[in-house]
Amino acid sequence: MRTENLRTMTDQPEFDHHSADCTADPIAYYESYRERCPVGRTPAHGGYVYTTRYADVARIARDDSTFSSSRAAAGGDGTAIVIPRGPGLEQFPIELDPPEATGYRELINPLLSPAAVDRLRPMIARHTARIVDDFIEQGSADFVRDLTNPLPAAVTLDWLGFPEEDWARLAGPIHDIFAAPANSERARRGAQGLAYMDQRIREIIRLWRTEPAEDAVSALAAARRADGTPFDEDELVSVIGLLIAGGVDTTTSLTGSVLVHLSRHPEQRRQLIESPDLLDTATEEFLRAFAPSQSMARTVTKDTEVGGCPVRSGERVLIPWVAANHDPAVFPQPAEVRLERDATRHLSFGIGTHRCVGAHLARAMFREMITQVLTRLPDFRVAEEGLVAYPTRGNQSGWDAIPAVFPPGTRLSQAPFAVPTAPLDALVLASDTVADGILAVTLARPDGAELPAWAPGAHVELRLPSGRIRHYSLCGDPQDRRRYRVALLREDEGRGGSLELHALAGHPDVTIRVKGPRNHFPLVEAGDYLFVAGGIGVTPILPMVRTAARSGAGLRVIYTGRSRTSMAFRDEVAALAGDRAEIVPTDELGRPDLRAALASAGPDTAVYCCGPAAMTEAVEQACADLGMADRLHLERFSAEGGDEGVFDPALNTEFEVHLARTGATLRVPVGERLIEVVREAVPGLSYDCEKGYCGACETRVLAGTPEHRDSVLTPAERAAGRSMMICVGRSASPRLVLDL
Ligand code: HEM
Ligand code: FES
């Protein structure tokens, strides 16, 4: 370690993340330390080093070899991933470092992938409906006891294969462990409940051996390691115990915090009721603001530094996710909860190899609970005087009681209520070439009925008859409720999605499944807008221009592309924005001066940008330089898996990827992402954000030169080229060899 430039670590004897001050207001507590002593050492709980900064927390969580999660590194006595250490059996993979952790992680990944969670959605909706039915006629409930605790417990235990009588029996103890003060009578009751859980897991594993079932425990019991050997019973108990204990109360906490927040902010509740497509973006902001797991910890394995201050091997380090989520260097005005904020870089699910494997399931359960509350008891009011918070919020935050009242509603079995997230079937009415290589596809329901409402920035997921899944921004008119329009690059050399859609046009007997709309890129209300679109990035921008023009807001559009004939919808943009539209084909006019356009924007102008990575990065940098980062909204890379739409193939080259452990060699065409190609060959792949933020898909590169497009790796890691985020990264060499 180089020590000459290191500052000395300041002792902060008062710092304690379990103190009454921190529990009263963790955000203010970390903020006060961030301002006067962002990194320090405290003697509390046997001594530890803390940091309050996003960059430090992310770096520590990603560097498993210097900052270990294992019990052994911390002396072996109790779980070492929290401070103070907790009791309980060792849990895999969260208490192991790679490579020991990898096999367990690969064991659970396929069971919690986005596709696997999609299959659980009807079950989640059923349980939520049943649980809400149980209290909706009464006009009052304790949201924790009656909804946010029993729902995640029922879903998780049903998914795993526990019989119904266990759901309620185990829900309480799991919550008790987190909500009760350590060593209290209630915490002891919780521990007894967990002992029962341990016994039940063993019984279910043994039962599987004689009567295999379709549930997750059976899948885990049947799984084999890469070398073909099975996992033994203790290993399975450890993994399954973690899936239950790690997943249930965290989701309880998030949902409870959001219900309290929405009761206090009726205007945001109204916004979500009127624009349900905002919920996905808002979910990430709620996760950022209300981090259920407030902090975790690591043990230092070799002398190093944290934030420029030396730390010694063996020291314990606190990594407070909540402090990282409120670091103003990453999230401007962090104390404000803004539904439209792009908060996807929050660390509430961690970052790196231990990034939460249950994130997709957590979001699905949260989404269903919030959606049913907002549709079935939209006028609920939390009785503030009855709220009970957790006694300490040092590690885990949440509410222990949320009494609420509402006008009594009807049980679902008697109400004309449809679960609002259900996918629907649509026909391809038309498919037209609207610019060089760009198809506009119009979709409608077979019976001509209305489609779900959407707002500018929304996208839909299409499942084509071949099984291909594609996501496209909606680019028609939000007021036309009978048609959706999407636009995509027609790729004769691609993997067939665009050609398949083209061929379907006008076949009345072929339907495609449409899911969504979802909105990760919502249009905020503003008096003035600057829209910047590059190439096919015009698709989400077009309905924004339409809506802004309709509302009478001030607007300016800069739309650039390689040549006039390659620019889809340029006449529509010009017709909507008139002389406020600047159409800039670069072969005729050169690149537009985006920096100058941004510099001349008014103080209240909201800036929206979508286009190739080079353009979005330049706009992001210019906004940061001009102090207007908090007014910038951009769609980075593809909004969500598999967009032929947002990637610009002009920036991509085709390459070959060889998966060393699987033995497969695959081609990655210009319009396909590396992760999409790899996913078909590796079912246990770990991924979450698919935008290059979260670190979940980090993969070792054994040969070849990766082309990095993520925001996780440091400049030194990029230059070394030994690992990459395969959700956004590509290859600069013709062949890439990955450790998969
Ligand atoms: C809002 C809900 C949730 C939050 C805030 C959350 C938070 C986290 C965090 C911060 C980590 C990283 C731990 C570390 O870096 O040491 C993590 C890991 C983990 N979570 Fe979640 N979690 C949630 C829901 C779930 C669900 C629903 C499940 C499973 C059903 C789950 C299972 C796990 C597992 C197994 C790990 C360990 C992964 C590994 O070590 O590779 N979590 N979670
Ligand atoms: S999935 Fe998040 S960085 Fe790749």
TrEMBL record:
SUPFAM superfamilies: 2Fe-2S ferredoxin-like, Cytochrome P450, Ferredoxin reductase-like, C-terminal NADP-linked domain, Riboflavin synthase domain-like. Residues 655-740 form the 2Fe-2S ferredoxin-type domain. It holds the Pfam family NAD_binding_1. It comes from the Bacteria. One of its GO terms (molecular function) is monooxygenase activity. InterPro entries: 2Fe-2S_ferredoxin-like_sf, 2Fe-2S_ferredoxin-type, 2Fe2S_fd_BS, Beta-grasp_dom_sf, Cyt_P450, Cyt_P450_B, Cyt_P450_CS, Cyt_P450_sf. Residues 421-524 form the FAD-binding FR-type domain. Belongs to the cytochrome P450 family. This is Cytochrome P450. It comes from Actinacidiphila oryziradicis.
